[in-house]
TrEMBL record:
InterPro entries: EmrE-like (IPR037185), Sugar_transport (IPR010651). This is Sugar transporter. PANTHER family: TRANSMEMBRANE PROTEIN 144 (PTHR16119). Belongs to the GRP transporter (TC 2.A.7.5) family. Its main location: membrane. It is a multi-pass membrane protein. CDD domains: GRP. It comes from Streptococcus cuniculipharyngis.
Length: 290
C-alpha cells in the first residue's frame, strides 16, 4: 500500500507539469530553462542531505543525460503550445512507450519469454490505438469552439523531437550506463540547465516568467524521488504503470485549468485514447516484471 501511495506522487507531479507551466506562461525555451533551474535547486538540496559519491564519470554521464532530457522537454513544451496540453501530453507519453519498448526489444533483447512478446505486442497495439484517438479531431468543430489556434503539423514535428530526446535519455540511463539515481540527480540537473541554455543560444535571463517556471522543476524533482521510493516498495512494474496515469491529470488540467475546448466527439475520443494508453502502460509494466 505504501508503494502505491508513493507512486501516486510522480503521477500527480509529472502529470501537472504541462498545464501548470502553460498557465504560468512563457515560450518553450523559457519554460524549459525555468524548469531546469528548479531542478538544480531540488537536486542541490538532495545532494546536501544524501551526500552521494560523485565521480568524474558520474558527472560526465549525468550531464549528457540531462542534455538529452532537455531536448525532450523543450520539444514537449513546444508540442503543448501547438496542440494543447490535453492532446500533446498523452501523445508524448504514448510515443515514448512505443519507441522505447521497440528499441529495448530490438537492440537490447529485453523481451526473452513468449509471454513477454504476447503481452508486449498487445500493449503496443493499445498504445497505437491510443495515438489515433488522442489526436483525432472533429471535422465539424468550428473555429469559435477552440480556445486557441492549433497547428498539428508543427505539433507532431515538435513531438518527434521530444520523443527522440526522451527516448535517448531513457535508453542512455537504463541500457548504456548504470548510475545510482541519487548520485546522478545533481550532475543531470546541471546537464538539463546546459541543454536549456543551448536552446536559448546561451542568451539566458532570469525574468519573472522563467523564475515562476522553476516551480515545475521542483515538482519534477519530487516526482523523481518518489518514483525511486515506489520502485523500492512496490517494484518497478507498479511504479512505472502508475507514473503513466499522469496523462489523465494532463487532460483534466488542460481542459479545466487552461480552458482547452473539445466537442462531445473529441471528449469521447480523448478518453478512449487515454484509456488505451493506460492499458498499454500497465501491460508494459507487467512485461517488465517477468
Amino acid at each position: 500500500m505504501t508503494g502505491i501511495l508513493y507512486a501516486l506522487v510522480p503521477m500527480l507531479a509529472w502529470g501537472s507539469i504541462g498545464f501548470i507551466s502553460n498557465k504560468i506562461g512563457g515560450t518553450p525555451n523559457q519554460q524549459t530553462f525555468g524548469l531546469t533551474l528548479g531542478a538544480v535547486v531540488f537536486a542541490s538540496v538532495v545532494y546536501m542531505i544524501v551526500r552521494p559519491e560523485l565521480t568524474v564519470m558520474t558527472w560526465l554521464y549525468g550531464i549528457i543525460g540531462g542534455m538529452l532530457w532537455a531536448v525532450g522537454q523543450n520539444g514537449q513544451f513546444s508540442a503543448m503550445q501547438y496542440m494543447g496540453v490535453s492532446v500533446a501530453n498523452p501523445l508524448s507519453s504514448g510515443s515514448q512507450l512505443v519507441i522505447g519498448s521497440l528499441i529495448g526489444v530490438l537492440a537490447f533483447q529485453e523481451w526473452t519469454k513468449p509471454i513477454q512478446f504476447i503481452l508486449g505486442t498487445i500493449a503496443l497495439i493499445f498504445l497505437l490505438v491510443g495515438f489515433y484517438f488522442s489526436s483525432k479531431q472533429d471535422k465539424d468543430k468550428s473555429a469559435s469552439q477552440d480556445s486557441q489556434p492549433r497547428d498539428f503539423k508543427k505539433g507532431f514535428q515538435a513531438l518527434t523531437t521530444s520523443t527522440l530526446g526522451y527516448v535517448s535519455y531513457t535508453v542512455f540511463f537504463n541500457n548504456i550506463v548504470n548510475l545510482d539515481p541519487m548520485s546522478a540527480i545533481l550532475p543531470m540537473s546541471f546537464g538539463m540547465v546546459l541543454g536549456a541554455a543551448m536552446f536559448m543560444k546561451f542568451q539566458v535571463n532570469f525574468e519573472p516568467v522563467v523564475l515562476k517556471n522553476s516551480i515545475v522543476g521542483i515538482m519534477w524533482g519530487f516526482g523523481n524521488i518518489f518514483m525511486l521510493l515506489a520502485a523500492a516498495e512496490a517494484g518497478l512494474a507498479i511504479a512505472f504503470s502508475f507514473s503513466q496515469l499522469g496523462a489523465i491529470i494532463s487532460i483534466i488540467g488542460g481542459i479545466v485549468i487552461l480552458g482547452e475546448k473539445k466537442t462531445k466527439k473529441e471528449m469521447v475520443w480523448v478518453l478512449l485514447g487515454v484509456s488505451c494508453f493506460i492499458i498499454g502502460a500497465v501491460l508494459l509494466g507487467i512485461v517488465k516484471s517477468y
